Amino acid sequence: MNQTVAAPAAVPALSVRDLRKTYDGGAHKTGVEALKGVTLEVAPGDFFALLGPNGAGKSTLIGIVSSLVNLSSGSVSIFGVDLQRRRDEAMRLIGLVPQELNFNMFEKPIDILVNYAGFYGIPRAEALQRAEEELKRAQLWDKAEKMSRTLSGGMKRRLMIARAMMTRPRLLILDEPTAGVDIEIRRGMWKTLKDINAAGTTIILTTHYLEEAESLCRNLAIIDRGRIVEQGPMKALLAKLDVEGFLLDIDGGLPQALPAIPGATLVAADDHTLDLEMPRAMDLNRVFAALGEAGIRVRSMRTKSNRLEELFVRLTGENAQDGTAQPVPEQVA
């Protein structure tokens, strides 16, 4: 009799189990518990967002995974390699792009990449070939022989990513990679990251720009006060929201008084735009009928792009243990 043998499940790119971290408070002081039993999994090939307010535990979690911070208890494995038992092997699977620029500004990009590869035992000839590939992918090949301090802020960020890719990591961790760069440069970096992910590299992204996470990531986890408060597919989590938001472009000017629409919130974003929030179950025809009766003609409409922000604020607000408002990440202007 023929039996179907199930294919083995893929080994997670990152597996974190009941991870805890308490920082020593010093003599006569209680230690600070930064992580309180964090458990999460990132699938191979995923583009995963790790979000949370300032002080939520993101940096501690990333620090432990990248072996910069010692855990108090729990376990971490990278593609099945236990971080505690086989640290060197696990670290060879990871590329880390920290938030701070940490390369020598008086070195050339080509030298920064080749020397970095040398630390990992990559022969110089191979390192030079990889450096050319990565600088071209980062659109920095024409700057290869320039002093790094002369690069723009966006170029320096791309150089950090190129350096991390020199070891061909299977897991790339990015901690606020677009912090401090303008939206045009940020979107250019998004393309670079999408290309890296499409080529097979698993990416974990921490960011304060929620638009960035929604545009790039397929799955996410939200951490607050050292605990994971929500995780799962981006689309599924956003679908949990019972409110939808739209921006309505209006022909002509708006009347002094806007119509009252039971169950919906309607405010003027400017002289020619209405900001509408309504329950997902509400019929849009009711809204258009009320606007038409008020003499308001809608020329076009678009979905507001702050759905993830709404989910974020709800989750981190509801999980505040002392009832105080939680810090909210700065948004894209």
From TrEMBL:
Alphabetized InterPro entries for the sequence: AAA+_ATPase, ABC_transporter-like_ATP-bd, ABC_transporter-like_CS, ABC_transporter_ATP-binding, P-loop_NTPase
Keyword terms, alphabetized: ATP-binding, Nucleotide-binding, Transport
SMART domains (alphabetical): AAA
Residue ranges constituting the ABC transporter domain according to the UniProt record: 14-250
GO MF term (any one): ATP binding
Gene3D superfamilies on file: P-loop containing nucleotide triphosphate hydrolases (3.40.50.300)
Signal peptide: none
PANTHER family: ABC TRANSPORTER ATP-BINDING PROTEIN, ABC-TYPE MULTIDRUG TRANSPORT SYSTEM, ATPASE COMPONENT
Name of the molecule in the record: ABC-2 type transport system ATP-binding protein
Species: Vulcaniibacterium tengchongense
Lineage: Bacteria, Pseudomonadati, Pseudomonadota, Gammaproteobacteria, Lysobacterales
